[in-house]
Each structure stands twice: as C-alpha cells, then as structure tokens.
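Chapter review. Work through the record for Protease HtpX homolog before attempting the end-of-chapter questions.
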Amino acid sequence: MTVYQQINTNKRKSVFLVMLFIAFVLGIGFFIGEYYGDGGGIGGLMLATVIATFMTLLSLFAGDKVSLLSAGAKEIRKEDNPYVWRLVENLSITAGLPMPRIYLINDPIMNAFATGRNPKKASIALTTGIVEGLENEELEGVIAHELSHIKNYDTRLMMIVVILVGTIALLAEGMWHVRWLRGGRNKNSGSIELIFMAIGFALIILSPIIAELIKMAISRKREFLADASAVLLTRYAAGLKNALLKIDQQSGKMLHANNATAHLYIANPFGADRRTKTKKWLGSLFSTHPPIAARIEALAKM
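Structure tokens for Protease HtpX homolog:
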C-alpha cells in the first residue's frame, strides 16, 4: 500500500467512526426525549445537540490550554532552544503551515503531542527526553508527525470526539437521575415500562464504555494517518521508524500522564504495552494508540 493509499484509507475509516459517534450521541438524546420528555424524541435530540454544541465550543476555545497546562508544558522562544525551533520552523515551511507555538515538557520520557483548533492556533509540545534522546532525522520525523496532526485537523477532530464522549456520559447519567425524579411517561406502563427501564439501565452502563471505545478507535486511526503524512513531509520513513523504535524500548510513564490527554501523544504516556499476545487483543480495544510494532511495520512498507 502506498503512502497516499494509506492516508485515504485512514481518512475514510475516521469519517465513518466520527459519524457513528455522532449518531450514537443523537440516539441517546432521542431515547431520553421519547421516554422522559414532553416533547418526544425530537426534544431529546435538541437537548443532546445543544449540550454537545456548547461543550464543543468550550473545548475548541480552551481545550488546548488545558492540555498544555495538565502536561506541565512551558512555552519557549527561539533563543531558548534554537535547535528545536529551527526544526519546527523548517518543517512548517515545507508543510505550508503557520509556525506553531513550541512547548517543552520537563520529562525524561520520550514523547510529544500537538493541540489546537486550527493551524493558526496550533501548538507542539516535546519532552526534554525526546529532544535529547533522538538523532536529528528521528526528531524531524516526530515533529513531522505532530505537524501532520495539525495539517490534517486531527487536533480539532480529537477535541470534538473527547467532548462527545463527555456528552454521552452526561446524558447517560442525566437519564438515570430523571428516571427517579420524574419517572417515565404516562403512556409507558406495565411490561413496556419494564422494557424501557431495562434499555435505560443498559445505556447508563454501556454508553460511556462504547463512547470510549469509539474515541480510542478514532485516535488509533489518526496515528496511522499522521505517520503516513509525516513520511510525505520528510520523504524519509526511516527517521520516524527509528524514533518509534527508541520510544518503544524505553520504560516508565510520564510524570504528568493522565487518561484525559493520553490520546494526544505520539506514544502512550503510560508506557509501552508489555502484555502477552493472549492479553493484547482485549487490551487493544481500550488503547488510545495502535501497537508501535504495527506502526513500524506500516512505515517499513512505505
């Protein structure tokens, strides 16, 4: 598979997953409105849409600042680290992107992430460990990967997806509280009431889990896409491949690792997956990143 084919395939899969996610959110809203609301299913759809829109706008305009703050990132200027600044600047020019803000995270673990609602408001954060631990071409590959997230609008996409996850959890929890405060609609009684109660309880339990699974699936697809896009940018697949090899060989987790921002990083901030093959299948469903070995294999074929 060529680089361009890899990019097109991942884009199609990502669009499908996001559409599935949105349909899932609206479906929960419809159910709430149909069962609990006076305005029927349409009222529930409107409620879900309003909540999702408000939270999405909040995330888009403040989410990047929260992510950088939680990572302990500090913004740098050119004079603070000319080497890193020039690498980012040169690759930004090559990619046709505005110069992003550059942040350093004081952490010995090799990792990096990008954030921002669009290329003009984007930021790249690199750990001190990755700057010191990689060769020039390898660090270029990592920076190109993060710039690809910006160029492909992955940073905006994942902000929206995270908010959809939160919206689903909020709707599911709200549905449970409304059930006990108001009860069901009068027309639902007897066996129908029990059926709706069972569906509602299942949604409360399963909705946040399903939402997380979809979020993680989207995140994994965008990593493959960013890898392929980085190769187009640097024209040197070995740089990123060797960087991923070094990242995979390190042990330990980042000092400020947390589940809310784990999907942003180039590699899992909680450390490499060392489980046996028999345990990896189920674990991979709940992983924000595809296995590094699979990414290296894909890069080797480009």
